[in-house]
Amino acid sequence: MDKKVVLAGGTGFIGQYLEEKFNHLGYEVMIISRQAGHISWNNNTEIVDAINHSELLINLAGRSVDCRYNAKNKQEIMNSRTETTNILGNAILACDNPPSLWINSSTATIYRHAEDRPMTEESGEIGSGFSVDVAKEWENAFFSFDLASTRQVALRIAIVLGENGGVMNPFKNLVRFGLGGPQGPGNQQFSWIHIEDVYQIILFLKDHEELSGVFNCSSPNPVTNRELMSHLRNVMNVKVGLPSPKWLLELGSVIIKTETELILKSRWVIPERLEREGYKFRYSTLDTALQQILKKS
């Protein structure tokens, strides 16, 4: 039987990258999505059939958090993560040959705002507020399943950097239009990871059958927001970058229907477990990551 990988919520920026990579390795890639042309979240029979006899299930499903946190959007953000996770867990229980590994997305924003010290899996402090509540409920739904034949790994993913999507286009536009200075205080930590390392970490976890539980999926070298914008200006060869004070960000977030938390929260997250287990990052520094991503700019 052909090797098979299932990508749940696999039509976004990360999912498209993983689909291409696993296809290149010779895997059949099955995608569960709300978009037409893929397995529907409403078709439990097809979900079970797809997951059955697969090597790996990767869940990336979740409504974008790039929106205003009103009551309707909050409920959709929460449900899109917990309900899909529950659907997948129950589908695995219905398989006669379940995957050996289920990787579920989580988020590095589960930790508190941190400017004093980095957050690791063992010593990190869980934060408070809506985004943290979503992360906790997401992980609770995931680890509520007791799966005898399937390892479970929750990836607390930092901001993913790569070509053709994610946060790079908005940041590039800010720099191009002369607004590439520090945002807010500029001291807030920016934890990030190159999309190639997300893929390589998945392969690493697949091959290391003794590993399970929570892993921080982030570069070992986070930077401050001020350093981030400086690196972007340097790589893009833009000399001037005006700062964006907090009041301006608050005003702009209302206009473009987003939340300033996405920029102002200090995410200082270190991949302690991955490094301890021997994972070697392809892009460990922001400069090397940006050079690769922006080489065509």
UniProtKB/TrEMBL annotation:
It comes from the Bacteria. This is Epimerase. Gene3D superfamilies: NAD(P)-binding Rossmann-like Domain (3.40.50.720). Residues 5-123 form the NAD-dependent epimerase/dehydratase domain. Belongs to the NAD(P)-dependent epimerase/dehydratase family. SDR39U1 subfamily. SUPFAM superfamilies: NAD(P)-binding Rossmann-fold domains. Residues 245-293 form the DUF1731 domain. InterPro entries: DUF1731, Epimerase_deHydtase, NAD(P)-bd_dom_sf, SDR39U1.
